[in-house]
Design goal:
- The protein is mainly β.
- The protein contains no helices and 11 strands.
- Strands 2, 4, 5, 6, 9, 10 and 11 form a 7-stranded mixed β-sheet that branches. A 4-stranded antiparallel β-sheet has the order 1-3-8-7, with no helix packed on it.
- The termini are far apart.
Length: about 110
């Protein structure tokens, strides 16, 4: 059974950093596109950043450009979202998506 499990969320102060992990089972992340989405309270889910099967990465939000990066470990079958210089507007539930599958999300709260 395919599972994507996000972890690494939490409460962080403005300017802080977090690294989210997407751990996959029964699906190989590197064989297709892996996406990180986020959904803030009262807002629609939005695509944050994408890694293609060949490893290229594209950010889809101007607000995270230069602050968020994505990487993966093909041995561990994990994808990562490194988030730096976090701001309150980054507060959201962050979801991993791959090959049509979704994780349950991990909450990121940026607050003083």
């Amino acid at each position: 059974q395919v599972q994507l499990v996000e972890s690494g969320g939490g409460l962080v102060q403005p300017g802080g950093s977090l690294r989210l992990t997407c751990s996959a089972s029964d699906v190989t992340l590197s064989q297709s596109t892996t996406n990180w989405y986020r959904q803030a309270p009262g807002k629609s889910r939005e695509l944050v950043i994408r890694m293609y099967a060949r490893g290229g990465v594209t950010s889809y939000l101007d607000s995270v450009e230069g602050r968020f990066t994505m990487s993966r470990d093909m041995v561990k079958n994990e994808a990562y979202l490194q988030m730096n210089s976090l701001q309150p507007e980054d507060t959201a539930v962050y979801y991993c998506n791959n090959d049509g599958y979704w994780g349950m999300g991990t909450q990121v709260t940026v607050s003083a």
